[in-house]
């Protein structure tokens, strides 16, 4: 099945180059839109700018230590900044992951490389993972190189690479049990396969533990982090993550491919492909909240889907009505959309114009359903957000263009805010959330500012506000003046409305800022979405004077 196109030797390189060019649209500009990765970037930048190396306080450092060091190394040896370095690493890793996945699946199944690439392309996470900063894609790419070496019976080299991948992201180890059935599939007897697998498990655990210790981390901290997040994620978030990773048609063709694999009685191959999927989904059964959490299993899911795609390609080539009809439905799902605006709230009315600007669409017709106006056409469907990513319900052919538009808008907003601060050399920048703080630190670093002092403290808020807060202050200088950046955690949360001025709850921020002493320096408040407003301590109430643009909600506030 699917072998009839093997004679076209030029087709796979051409198709792969098309895949690379298509994904590059969403990879550039090299801007990150995901909050956790911005925390990583803020931590790295703090150290690069002259701050203290404090892995105990870095975001998920114990889970991804080598990722931190890799970004810092690229920043040092290239003209790219930390954010650009991280984003470029992820896109290149995504491209390499696609190539090595096709090579592995082709070696295991004998199916056409073109068919395998098409199956891979049908899984949204296969390309979404390269369009924002995350450590999962690099870890998966490295691990798949190790598995590729194992399939070529280069066991020592393969094991060595598999030892390195967890240092990029520790949870990649959840798919490693596949090596036992893989060795059996490659011809080892089960006793030897079990022994070699056990030796590899010990080696991987030892390298991960010692390597993390040498880089200043502690592998045991990951268990506490895992337990914490297991109690935080809602079931609906887990469902969105799975759908975002595989897509609805993707899951269907995976099941069809698995059935075909069973019908062929390829039991060992089925074990090789199923085991990493099962183990990863068990590990993330309670905390999988983003497509990247299932990325490690995606190459094996795509391998099963390849059987279904090969069946469809063969049917289309032979002009069989059933396969042709299914192929047409799949094609329409990838290029078309149906939008039904079911949210009748101020939030939706505010966001719909932004959604239209970001997602390329050509409306073909409108209709009413259940009292609501709906529209259909060619282009991307509605956004839906996982905990870390923005995905499309359908019409994924325009996904890179939608992400490109989102990132370009994101960058323009940030640049506009930063232009306001250009020329100001002695002021205080205050943020509520980690997101704004980290991005502002990275922006100052890229403009040549360096840290002269930093401090983190737990204290009582001044005035009549009794709550504890944690305040982190950082004094940065460019040799001409100083910027004091302040971030605080606690109950300092303003009550906000989309499209309205920012108000406060019980004047908490007013009291907080009145209690700060910054020697008369002007204080600027940086909100999520990079809207800044001036704080005048002589005002009785905190008022929002929008200097730049109306506040744009961060991506995680988009309607699901």
Strand content: 5-15%
Distinct helical segment count: 20
Class inferred from helices and paired strands? alpha+beta
End-to-end Cα distance = 39 Å
Instruction: State the low-pLDDT regions, or none.
Output: 343-353, 457-469, 490-508, 529-560
Computed CA radius of gyration, to the nearest angstrom: 25 Å
Coarse morphology: globular
* Number of extended strands: 11
Mean pLDDT: 81
Q: What about the largest sheet? A: 6 strands, mixed
Biggest sheet: strands side by side, in what order? Answer: 7-8-9-6-10-11
Number of domains: 2
Structure description:
By secondary structure, this protein is α+β, with helices and mostly antiparallel strands. It has two domains: 11-330, no CATH class; 422-557, no CATH class. The chain is built from 20 helices and eleven strands. The strands form three sheets. It has a six-stranded mixed beta sheet with strand order 7-8-9-6-10-11, covered by helices on one side. Helix 15 (298-317) packs across helix 16 (321-335). The longest helix has 28 residues, at 82-109.
């Amino acid at each position: 099945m699917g072998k009839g196109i093997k004679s076209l030797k030029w087709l796979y390189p051409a198709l792969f180059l098309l895949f690379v060019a298509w994904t590059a649209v969403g990879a550039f500009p090299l801007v990150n839109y995901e909050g956790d990765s911005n925390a990583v970037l803020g931590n790295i930048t703090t150290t690069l700018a002259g701050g203290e190396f404090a892995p105990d306080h870095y975001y998920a450092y114990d889970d991804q230590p080598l990722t931190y060091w890799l970004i810092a190394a690229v920043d040092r040896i290239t003209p790219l900044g930390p954010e650009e370095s991280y984003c470029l690493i992820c896109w290149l890793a995504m491209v390499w992951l696609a190539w090595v996945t096709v090579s592995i699946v082709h070696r295991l199944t004998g199916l056409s490389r073109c068919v395998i690439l098409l199956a891979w392309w049908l899984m949204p996470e296969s390309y979404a993972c390269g369009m924002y900063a995350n450590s999962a894609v690099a870890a998966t790419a490295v691990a798949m190189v190790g598995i590729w070496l194992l399939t070529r019976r280069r066991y020592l080299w393969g094991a060595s690479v598999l030892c390195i991948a967890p240092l990029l992201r520790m949870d990649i180890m959840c798919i490693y049990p596949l090596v036992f059935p893989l060795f059996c599939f490659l011809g080892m007897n089960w006793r030897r396969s079990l022994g070699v697998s056990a030796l590899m498990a010990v080696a991987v655990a030892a390298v991960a533990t010692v390597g993390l210790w040498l880089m200043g981390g502690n592998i045991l901290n990951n268990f506490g982090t895992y337990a914490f997040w297991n109690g935080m994620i809602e079931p609906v978030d887990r469902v969105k993550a799975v759908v975002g990773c595989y897509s609805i048609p993707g899951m269907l063709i995976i099941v069809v491919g698995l059935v075909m694999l069973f019908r062929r009685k390829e039991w060992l191959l089925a074990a090789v492909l199923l085991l990493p999927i099962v183990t990863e989904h068990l590990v993330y059964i309670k905390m999988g909240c983003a497509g990247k959490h299932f990325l490690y299993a995606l190459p094996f899911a795509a391998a099963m889907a390849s059987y279904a795609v090969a069946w469809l390609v063969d049917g289309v080539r032979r002009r069989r009505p059933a396969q042709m009809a299914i192929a047409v439905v799949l094609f329409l799902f990838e290029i078309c959309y149906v939008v039904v605006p079911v949210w009748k709230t101020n939030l939706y009315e505010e966001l719909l114009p932004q959604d239209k600007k970001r997602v390329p669409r050509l409306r073909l017709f409108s209709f009413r359903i259940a009292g609501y106006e709906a529209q259909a056409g060619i282009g991307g469907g509605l956004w839906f957000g996982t905990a870390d990513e923005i995905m499309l319900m359908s019409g994924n052919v325009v996904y890179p263009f939608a992400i490109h538009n989102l990132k370009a808008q994101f960058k323009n907003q940030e640049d506009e805010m930063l232009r306001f601060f250009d020329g100001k050399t002695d002021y205080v920048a205050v943020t509520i959330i980690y997101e704004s703080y980290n991005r502002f630190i990275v922006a100052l670093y890229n403009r040549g500012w360096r840290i002269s002092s930093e401090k983190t403290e737990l204290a009582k808020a001044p005035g009549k506000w009794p709550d504890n807060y944690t305040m982190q202050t950082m004094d940065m200088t460019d040799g001409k003046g100083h910027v004091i950046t302040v971030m605080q955690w606690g109950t300092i949360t303003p009550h906000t409305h989309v499209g309205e001025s920012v108000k406060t709850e019980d004047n908490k921020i007013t009291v907080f800022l009145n209690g700060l002493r910054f020697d008369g320096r002007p204080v600027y408040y940086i909100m999520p979405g990079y809207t800044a407003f001036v704080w005048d301590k002589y005002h009785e109430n905190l008022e929002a004077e929008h200097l730049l643009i109306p506040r744009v909600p961060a991506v995680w506030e988009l309607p699901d």
